[in-house]
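Lab notebook, page 48
Experiment: co-folding of the full assembly
Goal: obtain a model of how the components sit together before planning crosslinking
Operator: M.T.
Materials (sequences as entered):
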Amino acid sequence: MHSFDQVFTQYQDIVTTGVYGSAIGLIIIGLYAVLLKKNLTKIVIGLSIIDAGIHLLFVAIGYIQGGTAPIFSPGHEGEIQKMVDPVPQALVLTAIVIGFAVTAVALSLVIRLYKHHNTSNIDQIKSLKW
Amino acid sequence: MKKVFVLILLAVVGLYLSNTFNLISFGDNRVGEVVEETTTVSGYYLKETPTKSEVANVVTAIVVNYRGFDTLGEVTVLFLATTGLGSILFRRKEEEEGVERLSKPASSLVSTGSRILFPLVVLLGVYVFIHGHLTPGGGFQGGAIIATGFLLMLISYKNYKVSHSTLGWVESFAGISFVLIGFWGLISSHSFLQNIPQVGELNSLISGGVIPIIYIAVGFKVAAELTGVLDILLNIKPKK
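Observation: model returned without errors.
Model output:
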């Protein structure tokens, strides 16, 4: 039975690179979609992907090797020294909700633009240019 | 040409991000020893939560109590997003006629299954936000689960109607009770949203003072708001 801790101590470099790399990779993929995609819906999806990457980065920074969830459930009251950092988790909880709100409003604007211009391709929406 | 520039930009951003995060080693203990004279914010929260707030879940204590004012602002942002969505996608009365849901009619398997699953999903959501101070869960998570239950019904029944006035009432009542609990803390103690844990002990359902009550209010509010958003976004007038 390999727990995450055993794997972590054995391949510390690989796990670190994997976790941070996947978070940074998500941010890069999202930025790529925002900068290069033409479809407005895809741009909103790119923003959501950047969100996910930043959340992963936050929670990863709060992790402590061999840590448990910061909950004093029965049988775990004495594990206060092992608990992971609860502050990034609380911040991410806030950030997820705000991300949802931003995505919803952005999508409603996309729907409006599509109705007005009959297209969601930003190159064909000429009135946005200045 | 633009693509090349963007790719160079992304490479630079990725390089700098990875260099920065290489300095922050993964899995290090940054909380420090949680002792009497602890120096970090996280250590303070971990030490104080079980004794002072009498809440098992430290994340809940931070979200609802220590950073309760921030959560009130967060709930307000969610409310504003719903309102903004409703006003951006506003339809006049005469436009309301041809409006229908943009989903294909579901098969009888899906509709029957979702009719059976819907009460169970709502029950799970209520369980998650009632036990927000004991288990990894809470108002936001429970509200999102309830909204997925409504989404299941909305996509499987084409003429399933959600009453927006009821949603508005639930939302307003939950928001007002959050603020009133905050003012109660201001009156009975010295600061807004001050927690007064007097009944119950750690790890029982009735414990933690005002934290579970606030999280239940947040759960109702989030469920109502997310359901409203889903219903608005799914009801679209088809193009002629």
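Interpretation: The CA atoms of residues 40 and 101 of chain A lie 17 Å apart.
Next step: discuss with group before ordering constructs.
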